[in-house]
Amino acid sequence: MNLSSYLSKNTLDWMTGAAAATQPVARWAAVRDSVSSEIGSRVTALFGAAASPTQSASNTASLLFGPLSASGVVFELAIFDSPVGSTNLLWSGPLAEPRTFLPGSVLTLRAGDLVITLS
After folding, report:
1. Is there a contact between 118 and 55 (Cβ–Cβ < 8 Å)?
2. What local confidence, expressed as pLDDT, does residue 21 receive?
3. Per-residue three-class SS string for the chain
4. Position 2 confidence tier, pLDDT thresholds 50, 70, 90
């Protein structure tokens, strides 16, 4: 997944002592289509502590998106600092493979399927 401009700036400010960073109360995941429009509702995303030496963290609980109301294709996943609205994007990135869905489908990412790595 790719760090957003918002999170990159806050991380750099924190590391250089230029500003304190405020941790979000929680994180929410969304699936998005080919033009980065959200499909369905955001869901709570829980993560474990980062692993060393891989510099990565993964989701500790399944992410269930749906049931979805229309058919389409999911191309990417995004992590936000709020459950709704125009909030701060933290990370985003493409799925390993786009996933096609039909009305009523539930897309599931099992615990450990979402890995965020800093390098």
Report:
1. yes
2. 84
3. CEECHHHHHHHHHHHHCCCCCCCCCCEEEEEECCCCCEEEEEEEECECCCECCCCEEEECCCEEECCCCCCEEEEEEEEECCCCCCCCEEEEEEEEEEEEECCCCCEEECCCCCEEECC
4. confident
Q: pTM of the full predicted structure?
A: 0.88
Tally of domains in the chain: 1
Least-confidence region, from 31-35, 50-54, 61-65: 50-54
User: What distance in Å separates the CA atoms of residue 19 and residue 83, rounded to the nearest whole number?
Assistant: 25
- Whether residue 115 lies inside any domain: the answer is no
- Domain limits for position 33: 2-17+25-105
Phi/psi for 13 (5° steps) reads -60, -45
112 within domain boundaries: no
Does 36 reside within a domain?
yes
